[in-house]
């Protein structure tokens, strides 16, 4: 009997492993072009060397809102497929309806009515570029916080169009017919001279390359080996111009030119050969960079956080079901699945740390990922002790929600951005930031445990006294944990601030937010020790912890002030308000008189709890 | 005699009750709750008031006042940071005095709370004693003073002596309050005609509608001044302007406009001595001087994202016979004679460094406090945890 | 005890007293540091600094703008002042003036007219532009005026522009002109706007510009300047033949005279010569106190698109660590006919 059960467990683990790893074996079948290897070529962008695949995904996310192009917008394409088209066959890319314009005022300003649909290609927008630029110029004069929805939308559209235009002119001047031939001609006719006018290059060509150097979005040309300083990556135009003035054409220029020509001509064989050729050259001279780029593109295609989200949903359903039927079996499978999801989640986190060379939390996005990770870890520990499905269900819920938030935060582009000078200290990032984030995670976990308690107690009769007592202990324990981490983390932050700019405490909004969490947790503990609250009171207070934490995590960023602000997130604001209202409603539910609850949890205080209160 | 003892016992009773309230957990919870409200509203208020005003009004005060619109009343609505901190401090000390009994079980709690006490005292001391200022140095420039970025002073400088300048520095607060200023070292009286906490200066030639100037001497004659609201933005500062009349025993010498917007000193003579009037950032002179040798600013490849800033500085102290080079960079300050110089910013196309200068005698307290609190928390919770695990196992 | 301490702190005023007048002696300041009220901050590409006249309110510089100001008149009108820099390919003087003209609904001009005044600022040439619309183009039937300054330096072109209602802008004319005349133009190396931190040589080496003074020979037309050229002319002959004259100044010996002459010979499909041959074939001319080396080269066969022989008439001057090249290229007959004008031009040329 026991053996069969563990067999089922292994089956579940194997099935989820297949689910997680499947994307690796899904080949790009859409064309004969080896876009996967093309996507692995490293380029420099925003201070970080990353594969083209990442550039493609992030850019498409910004421009289009998704990481792939679906058939309804034109031809279905992967991100890298789209980028390849945009850079090397722009006349085709320009017809893809990738610009989504939802705001009716924006549509009207561009002379369209709602019949025109919401999807537009660059070719359609092209005629209105001047309007967009003019309107965005007007809107930019208004302070960011005071802009109307239309103004924000038109600025965003302008930025998207600009990004599109820059990507398009990153490898070659858009409209170039045969880049390879152009470069060959250049090699033949140009005699490099310090004064480019004397090199024999036509002034028209000179202007084109200057334009390419100016407009290009990323830096595709690596340093000349053996140099490897990231500062020596060059834009395509810069590299060509430096050939004109100093000689020595970089082999990467020719490689990309060959790819561009082959791609435009539809010659898959030549394209693949050029990619393989250049890949080999890179491997020879920049092995570590190439390895990182490979890892990153595998990471991109695996999307571990997405897989983890799916499994968390499953875990949640299983754990909830375990309260109704087969508590033992379902509870156990829920836990083993939760552990699988946690492993996937941890792997994602680990790869990000490897790629960035940083501790886990560097920005708001990674804080969301890490809060989920911390909560799930604590949830697994709780489940191991109590084995009542509550740890699993709550952890899965928090894991899912935080990863969902992370997903929405990733819409702004690259989630692995460089750290500004003040923050560029791994020691503090690893201690202060990790501690504070664990504080967030545990406060959220306590809040969601309380949420489980209140929902089950008030709406169902499934909350028996034993479970209620177990939940009380769980929440109490997690609040202790939260106090420890948020207090230590906040104080470490103070010390960091003192070390960095001589002020232990500056009443900066983000600092204040962290302090609020510390204070609230301290209040919960003191209220409990003083006997001011009992079980349900503890739960209601823990729920309020959700509001405090979400304020400190997100709310303060919406103030748009302070050293720590990550940016103004107008779209998240209604969600935050909604979340706070829902928590208040649940707190009201928790404060209802006991006879209105369906479970009877109001019990004599067990002797042990009294003892705890007395000793503390 | 008996009434005396009765009164005594009543008084004793009262003190006992007071002590019980002061040492109660309930008071702790109430204070912490109020602190949360204070911090929350203090954070919100930063949007409109700016961080510096909020610090003074919310956190370094006894009460937060609210004025109903259209009235002059000041209604205290919340206790301020100093009051709450003090009450919490008393509460903590009283609670421990009341229930103090040393046992291994309570060691963590005691450590922790002692740490909190130190932290509170440290913040109180910092708020009262710390001095923050800025030092701006161009490459090659030497300065022996730092400036308070948000405080203004009127400097009346006697430049007659060829060897040194004698400075009379009049802080903004004095200018705002006083109507006449007499100072024993000055052979004249300063009359403050108009004080504008923030102002805008326009050349009279460009503003046809400007009213006639109150200034009779100096550049102010050609300048029109208008008062504007004080700024709440962190990256802006107020331009203080004052019309000041110089009056000697023999009669008035004239009225000058002095303003932060006028950086050149305006000279005049009185009693055969030459004085200069200049409105400037409040200065703190040091016994040593710093020279900026050069400033470097690294960015991440292909971006404008700053990676590191550092200033190579020569420190010269004649008193202590020091003359050496130091490197100040992000997260690596210079500590010297009670001052700490932090790399704070840069300007002027990377040719100017901005150092934050902090003098805080209570600087060490938070460090000790933090150690104690962390130690206490860890002890206490690990005791809880091991107890819990043991109980589960049995 | 601690309580008493804490209470005491509340009443005592700390040492950070900001309400007391203080008196102290300090050594005299050696150089009075009057920091510019406004300067180009932060941006590493910026090598031009300016001082905003009083009355100009600084605005947040956004987008392409390096600086942004506004001037208000008492009745609520305002004029906008922008400072923008573009890399290299900004299109030349006339194109930009015409761009402004089109904004004022004016027809383009083909040559530098009276609306454009060259100013000499900090050793550089800044073109001061003053144009006003003929018709009312603003709301309320008002005319609009543009005051502009164009400066090409360090591989970048800088545009200073004030635009707004005619009368208001006109009243600022002298202020604006003075603003241009007090620009502090750094001698920094050229940087491209996007990769300001790149340590490599910039793609295009820009010569230091200095205002060049000369007498314009009859039949020569001034052309827009590019980054390379300190002066540029077009000479038109019969049958639509044209010759191009350029004046280029480069630091150092710029590769040496022989290399340059051979490069030109190469352009004319002539075989290279050695130093002796150069000395023999070239002639020396003394013009305006400078010794020019004159080279006159003719292609042996028709090589232009119109099947003409091409002649290069060039003057080289090496002086004060700079090289100057005055070069006329064009159809053989036309260039030959311009030789006197060419020498006359050299005589009038004031090399700074």
Overall radius of gyration of chain A = 28 Å
Task: Kindly state the number of beta strands of chain B.
Answer: 18
Largest two-chain interface: A-B, 66 and 63 residues
What oligomeric state is this?
heterotrimer
Strand content of chain B: 35-45%
Structural class of chain A: mainly alpha
Q: What would the average pLDDT of chain B be, to the nearest integer?
A: 85
How many H/I helical runs of chain A?
A: 25
- Could you list the spans of chain A in which at least 5 consecutive residues all have pLDDT below 50? 561-568, 603-616
Keywords:
heterotrimer; B: 394 residues; alpha+beta; 6-stranded antiparallel beta sheet; 4-stranded antiparallel beta sheet; 7 helices; 18 strands; globular; C: 352 residues; 7-stranded antiparallel beta sheet; 8 helices; flat; disordered N terminus
Provide structural commentary.
The complex is a heterotrimer of chains A (616), B (394) and C (352). In chain A, 68% of the residues lie in helices and 3% in strands. Chain A is built from 25 helices and 6 strands. Chain A has helices at residues 2-25, 35-39, 52-64, 79-88, 90-93, 104-109, 122-126, 129-140, 149-168, 179-189, 203-215, 236-246, 251-265, 268-285, 287-302, 304-322, 327-356, 364-386, 390-409, 426-459, 465-501, 509-529, 535-558, 573-590, 607-615, and strands at 42-45, 48-51, 68-69, 77-78, 99-100, 119-120. Chain A has a two-stranded antiparallel ribbon with strand order 1-2. Chain A has a two-stranded antiparallel ribbon with strand order 3-4. In chain A, strands 5-6 form a two-stranded antiparallel ribbon. The longest helix of chain A has 37 residues, at 465-501. Residues 561-568 and 603-616 of chain A have low confidence and may be disordered. By secondary structure, chain B is an alpha+beta fold. Helix content of chain B is 34%, strand content 39%. Chain B has helices at residues 2-22, 25-49, 51-59, 81-99, 107-129, 172-177, 364-393, and strands at residues 63-66, 75-79, 131-138, 142-158, 164-171, 180-182, 189-196, 199-203, 223-227, 241-248, 251-259, 266-270, 273-299, 306-317, 322-329, 334-336, 339-347, 352-359. In chain B, strands 4, 5, 12, 13, 14 and 15 form a 6-stranded antiparallel beta sheet that branches. In chain B, strands 3-18-17-16 form a 4-stranded antiparallel beta sheet, with no helix packed on it. The radius of gyration of chain B is 28 Å and the shape is globular. Chain B starts with a helix and ends with a helix. Chain C is α+β, with helices and mostly antiparallel strands and 352 residues long. Chain C has 8 helices and 17 strands. In chain C, the strands form 3 sheets. A 7-stranded antiparallel beta sheet of chain C has the order 3-4-5-9-8-7-6, sandwiched between helices. Chain C has a 7-stranded antiparallel beta sheet with strand order 11-12-13-17-16-15-14. In chain C, strands 2-10 form a two-stranded antiparallel sheet. In chain C, a hairpin with a 2-residue loop joins β8 and β9. Chain C starts with a helix and ends with a helix. Chains in contact: A-B, A-C, B-C. Chains A and B meet through α21, α22 and α23 of A and α2, α3, α5, β14 and β17 of B.
